[in-house]
Amino acid sequence: MAPTLQDLVDQGVFNAPHYKALKEFFQVCACNHIIFGEMHAANLVYDHEVGIFVCIDSIGEKSFIPINEWSKLLNARRVRKTEKRILQELTNVVAARRTPGRQMPLQG
To answer: What is the pLDDT of residue 51?
Structure first.
């Protein structure tokens, strides 16, 4: 079974190629008006054969008023906000693991 972003971080194997693939994933989502719900590390799966992240859940607008579906600009802003949140969580986990005696799982 392919590892999730959560798995890669928890196992301490998240590296530069994974980071690049994650950035590319969010770029593709923003440029192609891909709409997702609550994105987190457990629903992003890394395909080692192709070297890309794939979302396995949380696709599509779930709100009563589908603003992100109507507006590519607003959806792109939401994608970038989600990207920033996930990258900040990664940074926090890596920093916590560098501090002796402190280990923190990636928030999901």
So the answer is: 94
Tens of pLDDT, residue by residue over 51-86, are: 999 988 766 555 555 555 666 778 788 889 999 999
In a domain, 99, yes or no: no
The answer to whether residue 91 is domain-embedded is no
Residue pair 18/8 in contact (Cβ under 8 Å)? The answer is yes
Directed axis angle between helix 16-31 and helix 72-98, to 10°?
160
Any bridge partners for residue 55, and if so which?
A: 44
**Looking at the 3D structure of the chain, how many domains does it have?**
1
In a domain, 28, yes or no: yes
**54 close to 45: Cβ distance less than 8 angstroms:** yes
